[in-house]
Amino acid sequence: MTAIIGYARTSTTEQVAGFEAQLEVLHREGCTKVFKEQVSSVGDRPQLRACLDYLREGDTLVVTKLDRLARDTKHLLEMVETLTAKGVTLRILNMNIDTSTATGKLMLTMLGGIAEFEREMMLERQREGIAKAKAEGKYKGRKPVAMSQAEVIQELASEGLTKAAIAQRLGVSERSVYRAMKA
């Protein structure tokens, strides 16, 4: 029996509305199971791995947008190759692409290249903007979150909490807790 499986992802946990919208669309498209995670596309994605392991021949993987699945054209083509080898088709809803057809496969390859080009252009503009702001003395970088909570971190540590527990409670990395405790 074939299944329609969904995969939803946002880069951060703050993207609640976008995440919920993806889940709603995937359920409306008939996905019987949805793998979901809120992690960067460049990091480890355990739910994507679990999804790929779960898929069986004849299944269809559905994503709302191309960038929810792949980080660049090379990664996209690797994903399509993996899915094809398993006998799984891919549907990307916002582009109306379905790899069960030759035209769908062609369009996916072309659009993947265009999407990667667009992302590279955006990153280039961002780097230029940051360089200009730095030259004008307007760019200070990201405000360190943990250092602003150094007193709270010291207090929790004095109460006997481990660095890992402090990090989890405050939503910062363990490394940030170490730095704040040193300061």
Characterize the structure shown.
The protein starts with a strand and ends with a helix. It has nine helices and five strands. Helix 8 crosses helix 9. The model has no long low-confidence stretch (mean pLDDT 87). Strands 2-1-3-4-5 form a five-stranded mixed sheet, sandwiched between helices. It folds into two domains: 4-114, Rossmann fold, CATH 3.40.50; 145-182, no CATH class. It is an alpha/beta fold and 183 residues long. It has helices spanning 16-28, 46-54, 66-69, 73-85, 102-135, 145-148, 150-158, 163-170, 174-182, and strands spanning 4-10, 33-38, 60-63, 89-92, 97-98. Strand 1, helix 1 (16-28) and strand 2 form a beta-alpha-beta unit.
Keywords:
globular, 56% helix, alpha/beta, five-stranded mixed sheet, 183 residues, single chain, Rossmann fold
